[in-house]
Amino acid sequence: MTLALLALAAASFGIGTTEFVIMGLLPEMAADLRVDIPTAGLLVSGYALSVTFGSPVVAVLLGRLDRRRALLVLVGLFILGNALCALSPDYRLLMLARIVTALCHGAFFGLGSVVAADLVPPHRKASAIAVMFTGLTLANVLGVPFGTALGHALGWRATFWAVVGIGFAAAAALLAWLPRHLPRESGSLLSEMRVLRRPQVVLAMLLSVLASASLFSVFTYVAPMLAAAAGASPSAITGVLLLFGVGLTLGNVLGGRLGDWRMLPSVIGLGLALAAVLLALLAILALVPGSAALVPATAAIGVWGILAFALVAPLQMRVLTTADGARNLASTMNQGAFNLGNALGAWLGGVAITAGVVYADLPLIGAVLALAVAGLAVVAHRLDR
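The line above is the sequence of Arabinose transporter permease; the predicted structure tokens follow.
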């Protein structure tokens, strides 16, 4: 079971690297592709929308395969998409390549969550899901900072070639360690769609949308925000991303334990704490002058990372709990919900910047969305009771 979870984590490391590394390379990519930063930010939105609307289709198409074979097919699609990203000569073709890459994202994490939960006893399911997502958080500790540094040194295309190599290593781990003959979920597509109409399933996915939108309304633009408000250099931004990744890793472990303990009360508390930290970051960037803001802002971003990713495992487990009878499709659609939030958050941040809002004020958008997470979780908790 341990090796199987590590194999899933290895694949999630590659997927997380290709999703998040673009944040640190956004200014360089915008300059190379001759577009402005908000337009380059749409590469995040395009990826996220492809996960949202494409991944459920991929999950349905792979529904007749056993889970092991389906996961291997998805990793192959991931390798192909990243190779196309590295070869793309212009913005439009890069957007298409990102869309291809994203098709594997939601289906892999959705199906992988079900496999991880089924490998362990009932009282450890959220923790097992968190182990799989450890690869995603380590991508922010290792993959994103080093991918960003590689992109600064050799160009952003070199980063995508490195991700292709990670994809091949992950495929080898899955092939070697994932149990054979993992069953597919029985049941018709019609019966699964009926499960997805349950109010608590819908509420769980809305929580995922809002939580992710809160994160990406700020994180998409973290590099230009720190450069403009705190005078951060590219090397300093790489260090901040490394600390943020450490925070995500710690938050992932915390979230797994909270999900196994008290799921919705934990989501409520995390939403309120997120709003408080983002408002503190807003105050730091607004009130502390110039480069003096870099150290306290970095500390706030580290805490923000812990709280933001502590929501992931409880929300993914919440969907699996409420969608019994359609776990594969619901889990995949919840990954789509997270990425719909990614797209919404990146779009809201871009709209605000285009409208004249300064980068330092973006944490206010994230704080409002975090409060919405806490409020909606209260509604879901009361419905349960």
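Note on the example: The two ends are 35 Å apart (CA to CA). The chain has a mean pLDDT of 88.
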